Amino acid sequence: MLARKRRGPFVAGNWKMHLTLAEARELAREVAAAAPGLGGSGLVLVPPFTSLAAVGDAVAGSAVGLGAQDLYWEDKGAFTGEVSGPMLKDAGCAYVLVGHSERRRLFGETDETVNRKARAALRSGLSPVVCVGEVLEEREAGRTTARIDLQLAGGLAGLSGEDMGRVIIAYEPVWAIGTGKTASPAQAEEVHAHIRRRLEEAYGKGAAGCAIIYGGSVKPANSYSLFKEENIDGFLVGGASLEADGFVGIVREALRAYREET
Ligand code: PEP
Q: Is 189's C-beta closer than 6 angstroms to any atom of ligand 1?
């Protein structure tokens, strides 16, 4: 049943607009200290811009990677308040979130800006974590996959199969983010399998390297059953990533599911 899955869970913790420098350092150290016991998984911390350097220092030499929450699509220039791909790379990032639903909903991001940002990330040597997901009304109206298709087509326009080997897709049903409501494993898998099919149609073998992770109120208690699903390659975690126990617990439970199948 789980024949396709060949690698351990990829789990990213999106700290959103939380934590002082001292708190960020402390949490990053705790996660880095747990990392040796979580071998086989990909761990990434995604702090606010102000904590990137401190978190980068705290996880240096560990298996924990660094990601940013957003970037601008130009490399430099008069764009007050923005941060570019080369700057993130220079700060030690390997990943960057693109098109998180909070950016789309609160800051007017569109599939077109998502696409510009994804391309800019790739150009800078960063792996974009491209976020897609439907709102509740779309799900209730049976328009989930149509919405996802539009977000994929728009957000990934012009990317090659080779690019896709460096892209991560995060499926995050908007109604499950920060609400305590999680998509059931079957609901999530249905959309992940759909995304996988769409990627294969568009990119053929290039899609094989593309991880599709789930986000939306993931906790240690639901991580095992979600990761058991064939097309769920890991998680994008918000609230539960703000405590080391929660974040590490999610990774442990996903690893438990992974080890049972390998
Ligand atoms: C997120 O912000 O990407 C997210 C999934 O948040 P939460 O885990 O809090 O639902």
A: no
* For ligand 1, mutation pick of 130, 172, 250 (most atoms within 8 Å of CB): 172
Query: Does residue 238 line the site of ligand 1, with CB under 6 A?
Result: yes
CATH topology of domain 10-261: TIM Barrel (3.20.20)
Residue 258 carries which side chain, given as an amino acid letter?
A: Y
Q: Are 174 and 217 in contact (CB under 8 A)?
A: no
Q: CA of 209: how far to CAs of 7, 82, 199, 242, in Å?
A: 10, 30, 11, 29
Between the CA of 174 and the centroid of ligand 1 the distance, in Å, is 9
User: How would you class 137 by CB atoms within 10 Å of its CB: exposed for 0-12, middle for 13-18, buried for 19 or more?
Assistant: exposed
The answer to whether the CB of 41 is under 6 A from ligand 1 is no
| Tens-place pLDDT, residues 73-100 | 999 999 999 999 999 999 999 999 999 9
Read off the pLDDT of residues 217-260 as tens digits, 9 standing for 90 and up. 999 999 999 999 999 999 999 999 999 999 999 999 999 999 99
Q: By alpha-carbon position, which residue is closest to atom 4 of ligand 1?
A: 238
Which ranges in 124-184 belong to alpha helices (H)? Answer: 136-140, 144-155, 161-164
